[in-house]
Please model this.
Amino acid sequence: MSAPAKPATIAPRLFINYRSIDSGATASRLYKELAEHFGPDLIFLDHEEIPPGAAWPDRLRNGVKRATVMFVLIGNRWLTAQDPITGDRCLNVSNDWVRQEIELALKRKLKIVPVFLEDTHWPGKRALQTVPAIVRLGDLQGLPLRRKDWQTDLESLVELLIDWGFKRVSKTSGTKASEPSIELALDRIGPYRTNRSGRPIAYGTVTLPDGTTAFGEGLNVQLTLANNSEVDVTLPAIDVVIDNYNAHPIERVDYPVLPMSGLHLEVPSSTLKEPIELTEENATMGFVAVTKRRLYLKSSKFGSEAQHTLNFYLLARAPGIWKVRVRAKYLDSDRSSEPKFAISQSLCILKT
Model:
């Protein structure tokens, strides 16, 4: 008796659902970048896929039927866009194609991801009460896609598609890609700033008996990462590594407290809202994570897109001398190389 035939494996395919008046330009950019990662055959976008003269509704329906994943692009006009003929909200019109595509995707049980453009506020199911056929969209977890954080947000979408079976296409055209290589630089180190009695102040530095300069309480770090290679690079982790912690080094140290003007030089970059804290638990572990967000750097030929600057405070909570370094883990975005590490010079923090 012959063994039963195995069910055919459905190839992954993405359908990008969008409203032209709301997210047309973003949809085009997203299509082009995802096509570079996975090839154009696995990504469906209506004006890229439907040739002139084709039966437009049939091609859209077939595009959804062939898909395994749908990205629903939601900008600030997605909910309120009006039908030019009836004046009604587009989503309330039964023949609205954005709505019909989502309806069909829900019926076929596709993996659906709402993608929120810029700082779009998503009110969830409340906004879809008049459209019961797609009200389930309001329960789904979404992801952001913002111009200021484009590469980071795009990489999150790419990683999600990889988890769902998409395979990256080779960009090497038969030649071996260069090894990933990044430079990690502590561009600006400053004392920990806070407010006392409504006035901005900063803790100064002190020279320890061995000649080492230590920052009081904590420090302000401006970390710059630059991709120097010809391949795109992913950084899944950035940590502060604790090289040494001496809990009782000095009974008392008087480091200066510096009054500040309150002025702050703004540098194009991203800033972590919460300080990175050094506790006794961190000393036992030997490190503390700076960010859990995956960073993405384009290859060096893309100029500014190959760099990222990250600002954060590193603050000691347990007394003693902390000797630390910043470490970034990285590998090429195809995940074909072994992970490597870039490490900064040492820094010292003294908390009495």
User: Anything to note?
Assistant: The chain has six helices and 21 strands. The longest helix spans residues 20-38.
